[in-house]
Amino acid sequence: MEVRELATVGAMGPLFAKGLLPSFGRGPARIPGHTLRLNPVSQDLERLAAYDQVCGFTVRDAVPSTWLHVLTFPLHVLLLSDPESTIRLAGVVHVSNQMQLHRPVRATETLDISVRVTNLRPHQRGALLDLVGEVRVGEELVWDGVSTYLAPGARVDGEPVAVERAAFTPITPIAHWRLPADLGRQYRRVSGDPNPIHTHLLAARAFGFARPLIHGMWTHARLLAAIEAKLPDRYRVEVSFTKPILLPTEVGAWWRSAGDRWDAAVTTIDGTKPHLIANIQVG
């Protein structure tokens, strides 16, 4: 796969505006066939501290694994606004995320970040695709992640793949979080994700939501922050985004150890329905 080197990424607003253009073409969906690589990347310590505060992490030398996902996100935007892609960001749904932290990453380390699009496959509602990110320090792979998106209405030849639902059993939450109306704006400032469905009522309604919704990756980060003291130096986490969280609201959360893993979820306030289901492998 061709690797296209970048020294910097432009402002996210104009890039995201290109990504909001509707998907085009009546034929089968296409995705870019190249990898984007951004190097070197010096971490913004002030922004990192603000990210930690918004998501509930302790400010410390080792960065959260979800912060490394945030650093890959501009390359997601670039790839899905590329002329080679018939799938745009408008209307795509983040359905799951996997990431593996191979060792603690210090806030002062300079990073090499790459992202590619792969595994375009049919789904009964359109198409699924994976954005695969990798973060290196020098030649060492320190983090990798896969964000799976659903592109409703996109056409890919073949039989739709079966997607298993993450197992969930209603459990009484052990934590309750109150999410304010401006949480989407707070997270936008620290994540750089300018999607207006998280910050503007009219944009949210245009996509079928009664109110703005919080970013799924905030929910992911907030859950990891709740158990960060229990996590080892290396772990793998898989999450499924099952139900959007509209702002403002209150949600519940729980987590429990199961030997070499943690099971966890963010739920409705009564614990009966999940917003996010997580499995964290620590063995």
Plain-language structure description:
There is one protein chain. The protein is an alpha+beta fold. An 11-stranded mixed β-sheet has the order 1-2-4-5-6-3-8-11-10-9-7, with helices on one face. Strand 4 and strand 5 form a beta hairpin. The protein is globular, with a radius of gyration of 18 Å. The chain starts with a strand and ends with a strand. The mean pLDDT is 93.
List keywords for this structure.
283 residues; 35% strand; alpha+beta
* Mean pLDDT score: 93
- Discrete helix count: 6
Structural class of the secondary structure composition? alpha+beta
Number of strands: 11
For the termini, the CA-CA separation is: 33 Å
Q: Which value, in Å, is the CA radius of gyration?
A: 18 Å
Provide the spatial order of strands within the biggest beta sheet: 1-2-4-5-6-3-8-11-10-9-7
In one word, what is the shape? globular
Strand content: 25-35%
Q: Biggest sheet, in brief? A: 11 strands, mixed
Helix content: 10-25%
pLDDT below 50 for ≥5 consecutive residues: which ranges? none
Q: Would you list the SSEs in sequence order as H and E?
A: EHEHHEEEEEHHHEEEE
Record the SSE blueprint.
Layout: E1 2-6, H1 12-19, E2 34-42, H2 45-55, H3 65-80, E3 93-101, E4 110-123, E5 126-137, E6 140-152, E7 175-179, H4 183-191, H5 201-206, H6 216-226, E8 235-241, E9 249-257, E10 261-267, E11 274-281
Parallel strand pairs: 1-2
Antiparallel strand pairs: 2-4, 3-6, 3-8, 4-5, 5-6, 7-9, 8-11, 9-10, 10-11
Helix pairs in contact: 1-3, 2-4
